[in-house]
Amino acid sequence: MSASDFVTYGRLTLPLAAVRLALALEARGLRLEVDGQDILVGPRELLTDEDRAQLRRWKAHVLAILSYDADAQERTQ
């Protein structure tokens, strides 16, 4: 990976592929939530096998995105 394969998201530096995955899933109408060390995604019938594979590959990064977003929401309320 090169430097251009990463993006700064708030205080996080993340692989661009993980950010694109999270955004693409949400754009398709999927909800992503953190449950401990797991990612809850629904509705499940919208998930493809490729989505599941990519979520496994980028799990730590997607969790970081979701956790960061949840923390940011709490700070603004």
Textual characterization of the structure:
The protein is α+β, with helices and mostly antiparallel strands and 77 residues long. It has one domain. The protein has helices at 16-27, 49-57, 59-76; strands at 6-9, 12-15, 31-35, 38-42. The strands form 2 sheets. A two-stranded antiparallel ribbon has the order 1-2. The protein has a two-stranded antiparallel ribbon with strand order 3-4. A hairpin with a 2-residue loop joins strand 3 and strand 4 (38-42). Helix 1 (16-27) packs across helix 3 (59-76). The longest helix is centred in the last third of the chain and has 18 residues, at 59-76. The chain is globular, with a radius of gyration of 13 Å.
Keyword list:
77 residues, alpha+beta, two-stranded antiparallel sheet, 4 strands, 23% strand
